[in-house]
Design goal:
Four copies of one chain form a homotetramer. By secondary structure, chain A is an alpha/beta fold. Chain A has two domains: 156 residues, NAD(P)-binding Rossmann-like Domain (Rossmann fold), CATH 3.40.50; 177 residues, Dihydrodipicolinate Reductase, domain 2. Chain A contains 13 helices and 15 strands. In chain A, the strands form three sheets. Chain A has a seven-stranded mixed β-sheet. Chain A is globular. Chain A starts with a strand and ends in a 5-residue tail after the last helix. The relative contact order of chain A is 0.15. The model of chain A has no long low-confidence stretch (mean pLDDT 96).
Chain lengths: 348, 348, 348, 348
């Protein structure tokens, strides 16, 4: 076995940070050796610096001393789980200092020279990096993954992109884990639906256009599709469910779409990246699937599940998609991004 | 006080029948005097013929003897809560025998000469009745109300109808009470979403077109709008929430729409029908409302609530709507239909 | 109609304060005219000083200006919904200044000269007041009601007290509304049970002994019963359910207990206090009742419901009890206390 | 690797049968080769004979043809997931015909010559078998495991048995999966508690006494402890939580109990049976644990979790226990029983 690459986490004590810690356990390439957090936590053992929310806390990192989030002792490859309130400056400081920052934070996603990466869809957007480094004078770099609901939507659309998406309307039913901890008060969600998640619709709309867009040398030309999102919170623990109505320029048949879905494989599958699901998009034939509690954790939470593909009287087709929001929609997404970058030789 | 009109319920022992019993308690015009059910229940006291699911069973009807569902002893005005499996023949037999059957069952809704009534929207569809009686040789008649999710959608659209609806896409998040009892197994819905309700999407699509359609002498010309529904079940007890994206022919402004919503009143309000909410469609300004657990029971469950009206990047506008599925979506809808008919002199 | 008594609320902007506001709407004796809160809220209109969590905010108080919690402008009778962190000093200051403080806060409950009142059980504990005023040099007074889970337990035990309770074990399944807002994070309770509520077991144990205790001139002799509580949080919105196993010194029969329950009435019923339920303890015959979602709101949330009374193989008898935690267990309890005091002439 | 033992399942198509199928996947000793069900299913492929409720159906058995539940083609070792309505005769017929029936059904549990086995507690109860075979004239045998809630309670008590349990009161908060499918209607449990489960309390009380009882040659002398159960259903998917107050004859200290819990190991651990958890009873130090959604699946669902051990004012000590009801409380329990029997040479 080859030497594993040392990695660290920026913002390791929060809920997203904990998901990174959990997801990286036993990773064949990446060896978690460094945990960064706020000044308040720095200097403490990891186990004393946070309340663990994800089952049994991994013993391998419990004893690591938390560092503060300043370049210096951190390994070159860092996963960022920083809060949006502080991520901009800190991530930039690390990139400036030569680190590869693979971020789950929203802050840099929509910047022109920053890849917003879904490895099965737009691996070529990594070509933005040389320009990013040149323009900003960085030795390091920042790469981002999308919002959790955007990942589910775009993964569901990935096999269909070839048919020319011109318009889509999506409604989400999002899990409470997407709001972190303490997150959604139980008084607001037990037996209830909250038809609003702050800034979520805007993120889904613009991130989707960028992810499905084309690399144009120094920037991404967003997909010129009209994208509309309705975002809702429901009393589900893990797994975002989205309904999608979509319009295509090339008017495929149902059979064309099903063939595209069933045969869809991309770079992560071809290169057998460690976190890549063998089949990234899985169609479920049952009339009432996929369902978050029953399906989101399958395939280690890294696949998207589609069901109920049928004609849409208002656009062309409609379907339902599901993905695990804290795995494929967050920590797993960033780790897969880093695996892709390693397979491209970008971490050498 | 004038003499109250004696009324009965077809299918009184089921869940929908119980909602009728509950809703009719203390009704100023209608006096519940007759309960019809299957042979199995006939001859028993009502309280012995069913398990009551709705809080405290009304004492006024507990001692009534259940009759079988054959014309004979029933009053002229009957509310039907029959199961779809048997409603067609029984409702027709009563209409033939001279009864006014105000039905919540789906069986006759889409028949050409049967009104599918939402009093705030299409009171004029009652003009189908003379033709219905003539063609079928009935002394009585059948009038229907829509599916529970269709009511919420169409009530939300009612103030906007004037702007020419040409296309809409809706996603529902429907309460478990809509499935009756025992209905949805808890193993399927606790912490989960079920992205499918049998035949519900078809009902929403075609019922909406008929309700918003125009009376053409002997039939209703359906609205020529493209309507697409995604129907889902969520872990909510009462209250269907729907997201709606809609396209208009006349391109109203947001202000036009808000004015239309805020000033919307219709025949039931003008005539102050007993079950009519003073404001049938209520706009909520809060960013995260309406919500089913907090809002569905307001206005005695008879109003529709709208929120989050905003431009839709894919069609023209989008919003969220909410209504109480077992009240405005079922028993209350039928009773309001009968009140409208009484105010038209059709019960004299 | 006689003149209504002006009342105020200490801590009016919090969740408990809002419950007081809601419960006092339309009260025949008490007229809510004053709202006290922290400096942060003082000077604002009530509607601008808080986010209302309980459906439609009452318009009658929306425009009242919030005062700070210092004696001066407040009416003589005050309901206290103060946070425990500040209640001690503030409640004392008001009592010192001549106010009747009817408090839902826990701070003074266990003090020797302060009545911990359940009007159906220990109305005579109000005799502590003269001593309280004498000892403390107060012109006013402080009267308290129990913790929400203690109310349910002691109301269930009230009809049985006569048989000599010597030992009891109770397990609670408590609603999330008992924790206020934001209260319990949804990630902790959706599809889950939390087998711990801070200090709740201690409160149930000692408060129960005091409530069931005897007035001894200057203090309450606690009931010498061994009381043990297991407190749990469950995913219920309103209504605390408790299981109880109990041992009696006089060994009643089941028939004795049922007779005692069914005929139980007390001072609030005899005097027909406005918030008193006609039957304070209601036995439900169904094998699977009472249930919080179906029963807690009955009788305007002011009764306790008992079911499943049966022999206990380990003590003498066991049963299940239910009550509405934010009504009978909080705001309604305090208001009933004040009504009792008024009926005693203590507010003249 | 040694040859695996062929095994079958009686009642393979129901919910419990599916749990057996799932639990036996990849079992190192037992090779699932035969599936028995009702006449209605017999002759069909397994995948066509049922609706699978547990995630992804195992492909290894999907193609097996279901047999009817009559001796003939079945392997010697059979796990029974039969409905109580039919289990008595069928299980006896197989035992008569020489099969080892390891049953999860309740029918034979309380019969005098049938072991009611929890391998960590009463492995010696297997000594009943020779007498069972002699008396009944069977070449085969029937061994049973307890009700799901009894397993959790007795596993929690196992380390404490040595201190002489004389009395205990337990309240359960049981998961919906314990009621099978369709099981509990969602209208009864969403946002609710059901304080009753038919016959469950009786089962917990008498099964606990038998499990903790002593082998007396031809029968089990039940533990002469007074056991009282309050059984409740809550909106949890998997994992039964129980509160326990217990009285001991030998008056151990808290330290004695903690030492007993922390060092508790039994035959399954000593023999390293494949399904035995390394530590059968795990004490959790956190104030608010164990919790069903967060802890039940740990240790592959085969351990019991204890927390909050503290003095009980009414008996001696109290604590909370948790276990996975469909694994340790059903399929896993039976498989561990069979593993124990195999380690005793009883399957040779």
């Amino acid at each position: 076995m080859q030497t594993r690459i040392e990695v660290g986490i920026l913002g390791a004590t929060g809920m997203v940070g904990q998901h990174f810690v959990k997801f990286l356990q036993g990773h064949p390439w990446f060896d978690l050796k460094w945990l960064g957090a706020s000044d308040r936590s720095a200097g403490k053992k990891y186990k004393d610096a946070m309340t663990w929310h994800l089952g049994v806390a991994p013993e391998t990192v419990a004893g690591l001393t938390v560092d503060d989030c300043k370049p210096g002792n951190a390994p070159r490859l860092l996963f960022s789980a920083m809060d949006a309130g502080v991520a901009t400056e800190i991530e930039r400081a690390f990139a400036q200092a030569g680190h590869v920052v693979v971020s789950n934070s929203r802050n840099h996603r929509m910047e022109q020279d920053v890849p917003l990466l879904v490895p099965e869809i737009n691996a070529d957007h990594l070509k933005l990096i040389p320009g990013q480094q040149r323009t900003r004078g960085w030795k390091g770099q920042i790469v981002t993954n999308p919002n959790c609901s955007t990942v589910v939507l775009t993964m569901g659309l990935a096999p269909m992109k070839q048919f020319g998406i011109t318009r889509l309307i999506t409604t989400t039913m999002q899990a409470i884990s997407g709001a972190g901890y303490p997150g959604v008060p139980s008084m607001d969600i037990v037996g209830n639906v909250i038809p609003f998640i702050g800034n979520e619709e805007e993120k889904m709309q613009e991130e989707t256009q960028k992810i499905l867009g084309e690399f144009r040398g120094d920037r991404i030309e967003p997909l010129a599709a009209r994208v509309s999102a309705h975002c809702n919170r429901v009393a589900v623990v893990d797994g975002h469910t989205v309904t999608v109505s979509v319009e295509f320029s090339s008017k495929p048949s149902i059979a064309d779409l099903r063939h595209a879905i069933d045969t869809f494989r991309a770079l992560p599958q071809e290169r057998a990246l460690p976190s890549a699901p063998p089949r990234p998009v899985i169609y479920m034939e049952e009339a009432n699937r996929p369902q978050p509690r029953k399906d989101a954790e399958r395939e280690r939470g890294m696949a998207a599940f589609i069901g109920r593909l049928r004609p849409c009287p208002a656009l062309d087709y409609k379907f339902v998609a599901l993905g695990h929001n804290t795995i494929r929609g967050a920590a797993g997404a960033a780790v897969l991004n880093a695996e892709l970058m390693h397979s491209e030789g970008m971490l050498d």
